[in-house]
Design a protein that fits this description.
alpha/beta; single chain; 8-stranded parallel β-barrel
Length: about 280
């Protein structure tokens, strides 16, 4: 696993208690020696300060941190200011996203698409930042067609992205098919697989409905059959996701990006299975 690009994602805590919990979680997960920790960014910049504070703490602990930067609702001036703050804080890596449009949100500021944000970051800061962008093996829920989605991804890479992280998925074939299609377009940046541990059935269903990630029918039915038996849900989920990760790495995925949900145990359990 050491040769792979292995990273872990957090979201910025909203309360002092949440911040303290995250410190404990991060201390445990840093023992796994990920390449970096990424920190998400609220729609319309609602958690911008929280993102920066969390990133500063990670950097101060001697780890590499990659803040998410969403351009929804952002102006060139506001994004320029954020880039300046990131640079001043010692950030060298950014996850550049369009971000989700808040409901009822019409225009999305001066940047409509992530490729415009990537282009702007490159124009403003040259090669200072390693830029990661999002990829959607199962097609972005708002894309007009799979072909459109693939072209949107290609534009982000052409604009200067160094690598990509996928939305989470449970169907390895969707990932391999996506990578194959990008290679046919001449895109050869690393596409790291996004991994969501399975620990809670209702939460997983809600997230997956929102982001368009498909839960295979057999997995869904099995999870539903456990009812409130959380131990069985976690044990089954660990088996399913471990075999997914093994298949991805054996099939040539350059790495894994774990959506930790600010918890240490699920990612640690997966990691231990993968390195044994």
């Amino acid at each position: 696993m050491a040769t792979h690009n292995f990273s872990i994602e957090f979201f910025p805590p909203k309360t002092p208690e949440g911040a303290e919990k995250l410190r404990v979680t991060r201390a445990k997960l840093s023992e796994l020696q990920p390449k970096y920790f990424s920190v998400t960014f609220g729609a319309g910049g609602t958690t911008q300060q929280g993102t920066l504070d969390t990133v500063r703490e990670i950097l101060a602990a001697g780890e590499e941190a990659a803040p998410h930067l969403s351009c929804v609702g952002g102006s060139r001036e506001s994004i320029r200011a954020v880039l300046g703050e990131f640079k001043a804080a010692g950030v060298n890596r950014i996850v550049a996203l369009r971000g989700d449009l808040p409901s009822g949100y019409g225009a999305s500021g001066e940047f409509r698409y992530a490729n415009e944000l990537v282009e702007f970051i490159r124009a403003e800061t040259g090669d200072h930042f390693h830029i990661e962008v999002a990829a959607y093996p199962e097609v972005h829920p708002q894309a007009r067609s799979p072909q459109d989605d693939l072209q949107a991804f290609a534009r982000k890479v052409q604009a200067g992205a160094d690598a990509a992280i996928t939305q989470y998925f449970y169907n390895a074939d969707a990932y391999f098919q996506f990578v194959e299609q990008t290679q046919k377009l001449g895109i050869n940046v690393p596409i790291v697989a996004g991994i969501m541990p399975i620990t809670n059935y209702t939460q997983l269903m809600r997230f997956s409905d929102m982001c368009g990630a498909e839960i295979p029918r057999w997995v869904r039915l099995k999870l539903a059959s456990f009812g409130d038996d959380t131990a069985s849900i976690k044990a089954f989920g660990l088996d399913v996701v471990t075999s997914l990760c093994e298949r991805l790495l054996e099939g040539g995925a350059p790495g894994l990006h774990f959506y930790s949900m600010n918890q240490a145990a699920p990612t640690t359990a997966l990691w231990q299975r993968l390195v044994r």
